[in-house]
Amino acid sequence: MSVPNNGTGAAAPRLKDVAELAGVSVKTVSNVVNGTTPVAEATRERVQRAIDRLGYQPNLTARRLRTGRSGVIALAFPELPSPYFAELAVEVIAAARRVGITVLMDDTGGDPAAELRIASGLGGPMIDGVILSPLGLDRAALLARSREIPLVLLGEADFGPVADRVHIDNVAGAREATRHLIDEGYRRIAAIGWQDPAPRATAEQRLAGYQEALAGAGLTADQELRPPVRAYFRPDGASAMRRLLRLPRRPDAVFCFNDLLALGALRAAHEAGLRVPQDLAIVGFDDVEEAAYAIPSLTTVAPRQAADRANSPSAAWRSASSSATRPGPADHAGLPGVVRESSTWPADGPPADRPPPSRRPRRRAAPPPAHAGPPGGAARCGKRNSVVLRRTAPGRSTVSG
């Protein structure tokens, strides 16, 4: 097989070369590269292997002249070092790669000017669409962006019918996480994640869910049990937990608004000589990979069920790379819970001074559909936005939602 020289002394593979190596037509290779027509998964994988082996790179300028699209979308998060955003970025990139879309990534740091630049397509014609998780951007700035291109917003901030949006029901997730602690017999439940004086939408919604669960159980939401934090990282969680442990009457359980806060809290509890969950229970939110490997493993709320982990990013990039700029309805991602060791009693039961777990009947999840796979697969139970926390063996997890 001969290929032309690209002027640098290296051969530049062509679509024809990829087609010959994969044993398919040039049109099929074009469909895989451009994502214009569905291709059988086995064929797509064969073409992708040929592309990887030859090192084929599409000519974006030629593609845009031919199709009016570059096949490139932008993806921007406010905190890429956060495991939640890092894991989500991997999923979006994988979903895009499956149909030949290239993802250009940026970390905005929550800067409104940087977010507006991303939302405007970086000021150039080579971006087909944008997936953005805004932190500092407001609706007025978004409406005034210099270039209107397909845009998908991720997260809690509601800008109205300005763009497509994928988000989760934070109130429901926080309510069920707190209710899980109540069902386990805990009564003095603290919350780590409130921001003062300028709380973000995430903090407001998760605090609301926490307070709803306490009110429903007839418990008081003491203000001293919600120490404010500056950010949602491990040191912030550890610092807040130390403040809680200095109270004359410390909490017996803590709901943290994300897993990094919970991991910091877990460390502070360990430093104070407390056993988790025997002396203190801890629950997080996000189900980052680290949560399953903490000691003890962390009970948490998983915003993205197995099916959503594949489908929501895929739907997001399809909207962002489409030719339509009119926003559609907001999409709610699934919200299952994962019960692990940090909130459940060990085999020998609760300490003698701890009241027994509540005996009020637990709500049962609807049975999974007949085609559902084993726990941890893409099975869905009940309503799309329901949250059901299920007990599993220590260190293992199951999801439903």
Summarize the structure.
The chain is α/β, with parallel strands linked by helices. It has helices at residues 15-22, 26-34, 41-54, 60-67, 83-97, 112-119, 139-143, 170-183, 201-216, 234-245, 259-271, 289-293, 306-320, and strands at 72-77, 102-107, 129-132, 151-154, 164-167, 189-192, 253-256, 281-283, 300-301, 331-332, 337-338.
The CATH architecture of the largest domain would be: 3-Layer(aba) Sandwich
N-to-C CA distance: 52 Å
Give the helices and strands as they follow along the chain: HHHHEHEHEHEEHEHHEHEHEHEE
CATH superfamily of the largest domain: Response regulator
Radius of gyration equals 24 Å
Major sheet strand order:
2-1-3-4-5-10
| Binned strand content | 5-15%
Quick one: CATH class of the largest domain?
Answer: Alpha Beta
* Shape assignment: elongated
Main beta-sheet strand count, sense and barrel state: 6 strands, parallel
**Low-confidence parts lasting 5 or more residues at pLDDT below 50?**
1-9, 305-310, 356-401
Protein structure class = alpha/beta
Mean pLDDT across every amino acid position: 76
Count of separate structural domains: 3
E-strand count: 11
Q: Number of DSSP helices?
A: 13
Give the helix level as a range of percent: 25-40%
